[in-house]
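Entry for the shared binder. Reason: the reviewer on the internal report wants the predicted structure included alongside the sequence.
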Amino acid sequence: MPNDKRYYVVVLGGGFHGLLVSQTTRIPGLVSIVDIAPTALGHQRGSLTSMPAAHAIATLKTLNAQIHANNRLKLAALIVLACFALLLAAVRPRAALTLVPAALLASIGLGAAHVTNEVAILAVLIIASVGGGLWLARVCKTDGRLLLLFLGVVLIHMYLLAARPDWVALTPLGPTQNSRFWGIGNQQETLLLAPLLAGAAIAARRFGALGFAAFGVLGLFMMTDNRFGSDGGGAIVLGIALAFLGARMLRLGPRGFLMLLGGAAAIVLKVVSSNLDAVGPDHFRSAFGHGLSGLWAVVENRVPLSYMPAIHKWPLVMPLGLWFLFTFAAALFVARRRPTRDFVFTLGLAIAASLLVNDSAMYELTGGVAVLAALGRFAPAPAVPVTVRSLVRALLPAAPAAPVAADAVADD
């Protein structure tokens, strides 16, 4: 049953004026149906509030138009970005790598500007993503600058998800406005794999295991913490990807992969546990607030929420799946160095995990093509070996730094 239809709601009396505000949606003027009954019954916990607005009706009409336009363009925008990423991967590999951060930032800009025209949204996204990718490729010519770019993208998302969630949500790459409303949706989750994995790899190269761990923990915290949306599927996918990439880069083997995977799971569970003690809506509460029965219910819901819709939409899902498989095979074929192949295998594993735990196969497959194009020719130098000596050097700033190999961003 469709759950994306919107209705105008008016609350008379009770001190309500202007726009309704809900902790469930965190978008002024947009509330969830689960907020209506507690408010009507006069319950304090989970009830609606309001904020002043000079032109409430006009604001709601603009909000509705913005939601409608961005929801219609979500798949189309991803397909266009994936096509341009593939084109740049063939002619300008460095620009393909920076196109994804440019697209993520352009999407936020569109949300901040409240653009409602579909043609304008798609045009700005394409021009800003391609042009920004080319410009950032020229500016970020060293690993240090690339690391700052990827770190900046992560920190900007974290700040805006907490302070201005509507800027990230009401965008062509944001979540659909139904059950999630705000936070990191499957489109952003998949595209964020590019800066998160590339950033972790560069951090490992420059700072060793501690650098990889720090960047990875930051990414897992962004995906998991309730202030940023509690994206459980994204946390699982990122944790698996980081564990595999870390084991390959740091030469840890299968046992190291399991150790890193366990470490990622421990971090996620610690953040989830801390969030459950706080008051307010939490996307993880239904899964972790009722013991094993809640977790089993999540597993059972994968069938109606993820697998059945994908089967029903097979005329669209199948071509996108074949597109991803072809891109994956092509990336393996052109990868001439082990670090590059490690990224390709990591992304293949990440998208496979995403298809199992998430509920938007079309977005994950298309976003996976874009990320494969971005990282398919990314070849960082080998990571610093995990030894006691390297850890001591990382912990003592006064110690002389080891020689750093020349930057190798694109395997041209």
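Summary line for the report: DSSP finds 16 helices and two strands in the chain.
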